[in-house]
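To the wet lab folks,

You asked to see what we're planning to order before we commit. Fair enough. Below is the target structure as tokens, and below that is the sequence we designed to fit it. If anything looks off to you, flag it before the synthesis order goes out.
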């Protein structure tokens, strides 16, 4: 068969496989056309002109040989994807499976592909890595033993000095684990064991060497990034199924060592990557962006994971006490649609790396929350909160707008997280948890409440007073009940947990809430430094905040009335621009009125959706709490009997 004939067969095969169609000929007829022609690996079934494509070290007169090898790799990748897909017709799937099995047995395909990793031809090397990763995962799914040539390649790569070939091996391993996380197949613990067991010792030694010897930034940076990517996927796999027994030591101990990289002379984006990774480890959200199948399934608590998370939190807080935050300068380019290039006539100034600020803030506060679970005395808890939150606020202060630096310390959370709703709500939940933990320890039986007033004052100074945080959160959202409803319905935030816990606190701590509202109202008056004004980072309690909605409720097929969000919410007009009068004289003025009006609208909206059976879960407990709070407000502070 001529080279052109092989290309024609491959082109037709590609078109059929992309569609998932059954093949005209027997599977064995296509095997020889799919064997890539790699220099040094002779294939007698292919024409001589196809054995040394340009760019691979040969001098073939066939100018299409290079493209033919790329097409062969592409067809193999698509064929593997079709075999793994549940949408492929069974007959076509069996044909593709037969071709791949014959290809793996007869051609030493994995050995040929590893010879291209890495190579001078970047595109070909990348395609070979992708193809190899999918073929290895296909073998794992088919329970076909992995070849010794692949294991040898990994051992040789991981034992070589950084800058040689480790990144190719790390990339292929990452691609396999990423595919496993995305795959809905339930046998993941069985799938990855044959891959990781023979490599566990080599991986341990590789990471030990990586963290004990500072890599050359000009040569080892890409190896470091590949190692961080693989570590993140290993941790994500562990969180989702406990299927990494061979690498348990690696995923247990290595994340805490990532903190060392922050002090290395590496680019800012590497430091940011490390901080974001550690934040996700503490939140158990590593790998959440890998697709629907990557969402952790409900499972029994993992005591080992909890122990490792607590150890990581302890390492983080010790590093903060040692000055970690001072090594995290957060300069950054201001985000602009269309890229970072700025026209010379456009005024520009130093920006702030908001991603780093958010990640570092959550890293510290979440670590503090975890550490408080193991503290016995209220005094120790208060000391830790005040010391660590003071360092966090000192770290954030240079990056806050000048107006916000002079205002209430609790305003930091809403400003830092204003562009990231899920992180903002997680930070609010963590801040509330810290406050409740200290408060409950301070009010244990036999101790009384001698430090209650002092702790309330310190919670303001430390930026973690829950009432201030809630009011600033509402201000950030424009006191818009529609947005709160969106958060409650969304599965991407922890707002339901946060709101339920806060409403329980509000029901018990109503007088403190009124005091906070009055203080913030007073500080917002002209001539007084405090919170108020238009919507900007320094005045987050303005009534003139724009509203937004994440869900189009009137587009629901189940809705008979087709009411808009405003109609569902209306128990009167819903005008964010209108500043309502005080409902209760002397009880916090406008701020209390706006907050309660927002909660009242939310209460009414939930009831309406519940009556129409449009609410996605049973909100009875939440509705009851909202009703209690409304009753307290209407009764001028009298807590109703439950």
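Sequence we intend to order:
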């Amino acid at each position: 068969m001529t080279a052109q004939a092989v290309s024609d067969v491959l082109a037709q095969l590609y078109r059929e496989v992309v569609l998932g169609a059954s093949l005209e000929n027997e599977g064995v007829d296509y095997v020889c056309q799919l064997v890539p022609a790699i220099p040094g690996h002779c294939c007698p079934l292919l024409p001589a002109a196809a054995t040394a494509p340009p760019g691979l070290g040969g001098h073939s007169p066939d100018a299409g040989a290079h493209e033919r090898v790329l097409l062969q790799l592409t067809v193999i990748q698509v064929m593997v994807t079709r075999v793994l897909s549940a949408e492929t017709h069974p007959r076509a799937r069996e044909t593709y499976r037969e071709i791949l099995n014959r290809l793996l047995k007869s051609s030493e395909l994995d050995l040929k592909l590893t010879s291209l990793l890495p190579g001078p031809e970047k595109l070909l090397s990348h395609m070979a890595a992708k193809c190899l990763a999918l073929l290895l995962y296909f073998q794992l799914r088919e329970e076909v033993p992995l070849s010794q040539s692949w294991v040898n390649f990994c051992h040789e790569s991981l034992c070589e000095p950084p800058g040689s070939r480790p990144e190719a091996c790390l990339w292929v391993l990452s691609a396999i684990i990423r595919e496993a996380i995305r795959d809905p197949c339930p046998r993941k613990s069985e799938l990855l064991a044959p891959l990781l067991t023979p490599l566990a010792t080599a991986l341990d030694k590789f990471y030990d060497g990586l963290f004990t010897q500072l890599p050359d930034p000009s040569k080892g940076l890409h190896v470091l990034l590949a190692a961080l990517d693989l570590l993140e996927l290993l941790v994500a796999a562990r969180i989702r199924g406990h299927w990494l027994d061979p690498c348990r030591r690696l995923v247990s101990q290595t994340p805490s060592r990532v903190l060392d990289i922050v002090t290395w002379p590496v680019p800012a984006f590497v430091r940011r990557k490390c901080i974001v990774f550690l934040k996700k480890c503490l939140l158990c959200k590593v790998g959440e962006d890998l697709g629907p199948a990557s969402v952790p399934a409900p499972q029994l608590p993992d005591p080992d994971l909890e122990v490792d998370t607590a150890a990581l939190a302890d390492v983080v807080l010790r590093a903060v006490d040692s000055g970690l935050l001072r090594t995290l300068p957060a300069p950054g380019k201001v985000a602009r649609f269309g890229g970072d290039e700025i026209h010379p006539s456009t005024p520009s100034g130093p920006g702030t790396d908001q991603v780093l600020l958010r990640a570092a803030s959550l890293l510290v506060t979440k670590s503090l929350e975890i550490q408080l679970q193991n503290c016995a005395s209220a005094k120790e808890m208060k000391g830790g909160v005040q010391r660590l939150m003071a360092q966090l606020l000192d770290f954030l202060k240079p990056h806050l707008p000048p107006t916000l630096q002079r205002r209430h310390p609790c305003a930091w959370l809403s400003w830092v997280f204003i562009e990231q709703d899920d992180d903002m709500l997680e930070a609010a939940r963590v801040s509330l948890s810290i406050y409740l933990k200290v408060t409950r320890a301070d009010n244990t039986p036999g101790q009384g409440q001698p430090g209650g007033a002092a702790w309330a004052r310190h919670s303001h100074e430390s930026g973690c007073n829950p009432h201030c945080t809630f009011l600033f959160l509402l201000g950030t959202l424009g006191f818009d009940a529609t947005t709160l409803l969106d958060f409650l319905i969304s599965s991407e935030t922890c707002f339901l947990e946060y709101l339920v816990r806060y409403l329980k606190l509000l029901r018990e701590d109503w007088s403190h809430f009124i005091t906070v509202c009055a203080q913030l109202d007073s500080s917002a008056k002209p001539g007084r430094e405090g919170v108020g004004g238009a919507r900007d980072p320094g005045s987050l309690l303005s009534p003139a905040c724009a509203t937004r909605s994440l869900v189009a409720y009137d587009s629901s097929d189940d809705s008979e009335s087709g009411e808009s969000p405003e109609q569902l919410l209306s128990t009167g007009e819903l005008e964010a621009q209108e500043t309502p009068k005080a409902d209760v004289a002397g009880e916090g003025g406008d701020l209390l009125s706006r907050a309660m009006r927002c909660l009242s609208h939310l209460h009414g909206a939930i009831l309406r959706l519940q009556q129409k059976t449009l609410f996605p879960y049973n909100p009875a407990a939440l509705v009851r709490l909202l009703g209690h709070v409304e009753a307290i407000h209407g009764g001028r502070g009298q807590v109703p009997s439950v």
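Structural context that might help your review: The chain has a mean pLDDT of 79. DSSP finds 27 helices and two strands in the chain.

Thanks,
Computational group
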